[in-house]
């Protein structure tokens, strides 16, 4: 979220303001940015921009790719954890979930992304024997899970490829994606439809749907919600009802986050 222009207090540190602005530029960009890109966008000399980038990289707030471009670092995820705890989003998830009767029988989870993994920060397991029990703190690959694919669908194709550069895609079942090319093609459908699907990619016989939760002030995606059920019990009308309810759950959580600010 970009900081709106306003009169600043006298006791401000210009270098901190510039660092925050640099993070804003990266968060707003769908692509990793080079030193030259950042220098031009911030109207700063390359030497000053390099000092900011180096300092932020050391702290983990930035990550420098091998091609010299920069992207947000994993330390941002730690701050997101703290944000979620402060706003008590997990409690809001439980309240919003209770208001969605269409999801009563499904297992439901709230996740955030940490690199190429999703981290489960809240969950309500289904009474059905779906073969997988979710727990808080559990981690699974973004490429196999519905919530993970919902989260990375907000990245562009280049950023998705960079996420798996030099590493094979994890495969949890025979139906998990075998290549980044197949994953990228899948994400194009996710962006078009507004939801992601895990079709026995995490566990045989299990079907999941996931939807991203965007920052209420048009910032980057903050989390995702997903539901899981037995694939054989998911008729087309039931699937459509579940997806619609899941999208409503994501909207409700986005609205609740805005009220909590």
Silhouette: globular
Q: Would you report the number of β strands?
A: 8
Rg over C-alpha atoms, rounded to the nearest angstrom = 19 Å
Q: Major sheet, described briefly? A: 6 strands, antiparallel
Lateral strand order in the biggest sheet: 5-4-3-8-7-6
Chain-averaged pLDDT: 85
**Total count of domains:** 2
- What name is given to the CATH topology of the largest domain? Beta-Lactamase
- In CATH's first tier, which class of the largest domain applies? Alpha Beta
CATH architecture of the largest domain: 2-Layer Sandwich
- Name the structural class: alpha+beta
Helix content: 40-55%
Low-confidence residue ranges: 1-6
End-to-end separation in angstroms reads 13 Å
CATH superfamily assignment of the largest domain?
GAF domain
Order of helices and strands: HHHEEHHEEEHHHEEEH
Taken as a percent bin, the fraction of beta residues is 15-25%
Number of helices, counting only DSSP H or I runs of 4 residues or more? 9
Tag the structure with descriptive keywords.
alpha+beta, Arc Repressor Mutant, subunit A, Beta-Lactamase, 2 domains, 6-stranded antiparallel sheet, globular, disordered N terminus
Indicate the topology.
Blueprint: H1 14-28, H2 35-42, H3 46-59, E1 62-64, E2 70-72, H4 75-87, H5 89-98, E3 107-114, E4 117-124, E5 139-141, H6 146-152, H7 157-163, H8 180-193, E6 196-199, E7 206-214, E8 221-230, H9 236-260
Antiparallel strand pairs: 1-2, 3-4, 3-8, 4-5, 6-7, 7-8
């Amino acid at each position: 979220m970009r900081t709106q222009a306003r009169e600043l207090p006298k006791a401000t540190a210009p270098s901190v303001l510039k660092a925050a602005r640099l993070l804003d530029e990266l968060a707003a960009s769908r692509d990793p940015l080079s030193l030259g890109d950042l220098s031009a966008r911030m109207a700063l000399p390359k030497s000053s921009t390099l000092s900011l980038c180096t300092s932020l990289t050391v702290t983990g707030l930035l990550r420098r790719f091998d091609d010299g471009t920069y992207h947000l670092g994993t330390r941002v995820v730690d701050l997101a954890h703290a944000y979620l705890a402060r706003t008590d989003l997990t409690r809001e998830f439980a309240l919003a979930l209770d208001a969605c009767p269409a999801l009563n029988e499904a297992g439901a989870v709230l996740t955030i992304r940490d690199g190429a993994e999703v981290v489960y920060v809240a969950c309500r397991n289904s009474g059905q024997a779906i073969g997988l029990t979710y727990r808080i703190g559990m981690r699974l690959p973004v490429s196999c899970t519905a919530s993970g694919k919902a989260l990375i669908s907000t990245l562009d194709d280049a950023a998705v490829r960079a996420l798996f550069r030099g590493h094979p895609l994890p495969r949890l079942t025979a139906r998990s994606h075998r290549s980044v090319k197949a994953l990228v093609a899948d994400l194009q459908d996710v962006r078009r439809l507004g939801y992601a699907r895990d079709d026995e990619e995490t566990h045989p016989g299990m079907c999941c749907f996931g939807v991203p939760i965007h920052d209420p002030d048009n910032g980057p995606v903050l989390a995702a919600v997903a539901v899981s059920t037995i694939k054989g019990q998911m008729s087309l009308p039931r699937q459509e009802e579940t997806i619609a309810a899941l999208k409503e759950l994501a909207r409700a959580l986005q609205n609740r986050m805005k009220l909590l600010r």
